Amino acid sequence: MVEKEKERKEKNTEMEEKHTGHNEHEEQEKKKKHVSYKAKYEELQKEYEELKDRYLRLSAEFDNFRKRTLKEKADLTKYGGEQVLLSLLPVIDDFDRAMNSMPEEEACSSYVEGIKLIYNKLKDFLKQNGVTEMEVLYQDFDPELHDAVSKVPAPEEGLKGKIVDVVQKGYFLKEKVLRHAKVVVGE
Question: Which pLDDT tens digit goes with each residue over 56-91?
Fold first, then answer.
């Protein structure tokens, strides 16, 4: 009986060893799977972060595009007729010269009145479209607004660096310079 018990104990020990070995094998498999899942999770997390970053950049890019398009559209409607108005400025210049050289005789008075009416209508049209004349005489010279055609000795000490004569008027279209004033600067 002692022998049978020894055999039984040996078998139990053997089975426990097999079972323990089997358990160790299962634990190693579980660890491998855990490491595998963890690596997969980290890979997916990294991919998620990249996609999120790409999405945010595209979203910001689209928002900038939308804002830029709206601004361009607003500028187009605001300054759309700029070329037409710019083309009318030489006509105004010619009217100014004609008005300054007209005789004041009685025989020509109706003719002069007709020209003044046309001139005033044209100036009103320009004002309605946002074109305003620059007031530049005796102002400080500003290269952003004025083109200096020449420099002359200043008639007074206080006029040095200031505009003493206007060769061609300058105009604004709303707040934008439509045409720079051509001026003579005192030095």
Answer: 999 899 889 899 888 888 777 766 777 778 888 888
Place of tokens 């003719």: 111
Rg (CA), the chain: 45
Which of 36-40, 64-68, 109-113 reaches the highest mean pLDDT?
Answer: 64-68
- Domain residue limits at 34: 1-79
Contact 147, 180 (CB under 8 A): yes
Q: What are phi and psi of 117, to 5 degrees?
A: -60, -45
Same structural domain, 68 and 92: no
What lies within 8 Å, CB to CB, of 122 at 6+ separation is 88, 91, 92, 95
What is the domain-level CATH number for residue 143?
Answer: 2.30.22.10
The residues near 29 (Cβ < 8 Å, ≥ 6 apart) are: none
Q: What gap in Å lies between CA 132 and CA 172, rounded to an integer?
A: 5
CB atoms within 10 A of CB 146: 21
Count, residues in the chain: 187
* 73 and 101 both lie in a single domain: no
Residue carrying structure tokens 């409607």:
77
Q: Which pLDDT belongs to residue 146? A: 92
Output the average pLDDT for the chain.
82
Report the first-to-last Cα separation within the chain, whole angstroms.
133
* pLDDT over threshold 80, residue 156: yes
pTM for this predicted structure: 0.55
